[in-house]
Design a protein that fits this description.
Oligomer: heterodimer
Largest sheet of chain A: 6 strands, mixed
Number of helices of chain A: 0
Structural class of chain B: mainly beta
Shape of chain B: globular
Largest sheet of chain B: 7 strands, mixed
Radius of gyration of chain B: 14 Å
Strand content of chain A: 35-45%
Order of helices and strands of chain B: EEEEEEEEEEE
Helix content of chain A: under 10%
Largest interface: A-B, 23 and 26 residues
Distance between the termini of chain A: 36 Å
Helix content of chain B: under 10%
Shape of chain A: globular
Number of strands of chain B: 11
Chain lengths: ~110, ~120
């Protein structure tokens, strides 16, 4: 089955840029999606179809996808961005796949 | 505004069948392009997609769980039901009901999510 790999954790200082990667075989040929999950809350989409932002998501969130890697970038990271981030894609067998998640710490 | 709410037992015994109901509002599952899915998350672990049902009754299942899962819809009640057979302690998780979006059925993303319901499997 298809697998997506994320780094387990990432730490950044407030105001810095956070870059979270998601790797999968020929992921660039699929759409990548990203979700933010704050502690005790349900996930919320922050990027869909590689680089689109849902309504209400701040402009500091951006995404890209090429080759085997999709990337979520948070520019000017704020304390409120501290959360778990999950990437998601659909494989050719119409199976939804999530990455293992990346815990972003802002300190 | 789209909302979804999960309901069902909080505790099931091993080997039992879990039945969860998602009651939604703000859209109709009779409308072209609409869909509702289920995703679970064991405590402290990652998200896992389970199943998805579309407006035309097409259904997708996680290959690793497909033999245990059944997803159905009742459009008159605005409900989607997920049944999972032969429950085991490893199935302990928060189960989320989700609204699907996307331009085609192999381009699905999920927004919004319900609040989730924690199901514990224990004797």
């Amino acid at each position: 089955s298809y697998e997506l790999t994320q780094p387990p954790s990432l730490s950044v200082s407030p105001g810095q840029t956070a870059t979270i990667t998601c790797s999968g075989d020929k992921l660039g040929n699929k759409y990548a999606y990203w979700y933010q999950q704050r502690p005790g809350q349900s996930p919320v989409p922050v990027i869909y179809q590689d680089s689109e932002r849902p309504s209400g998501i701040p402009e500091r969130f951006s995404g890209s996808n090429s080759g085997n890697t999709a990337t979520l970038t948070i520019s000017g990271t704020q304390a409120v961005d501290e959360a778990d981030y999950y990437c998601q894609a659909w494989d050719s067998n119409l199976e939804g796949v999530f990455g293992g998640g990346t815990r972003l710490t802002v300190l | 505004q789209i909302t979804l709410k999960e309901s069902g037992p909080t505790l099931v015994k091993p080997t039992q069948t879990l039945t969860l109901t998602c009651t939604f509002s703000g859209f109709s599952l009779n409308s072209n392009g609409e869909g509702v899915g289920w995703i679970r998350q064991p405590p402290g672990k990652a998200l896992e997609w389970l199943a998805l049902i579309f407006w035309d009754d097409d259904k997708l299942y996680s290959p690793s769980l497909q033999y245990r899962l059944t997803i159905t819809k009742d459009t008159s009640k605005n409900q989607v039901v997920l049944a999972m057979t032969n429950m085991a302690p490893v199935d302990t998780a928060t189960y989320y009901c989700v609204h699907r979006r996307g331009p085609a059925r192999h381009y699905n993303w999920f927004d919004p999510w319900g609040r989730g319901t924690l199901v514990t499997v224990s004797s």
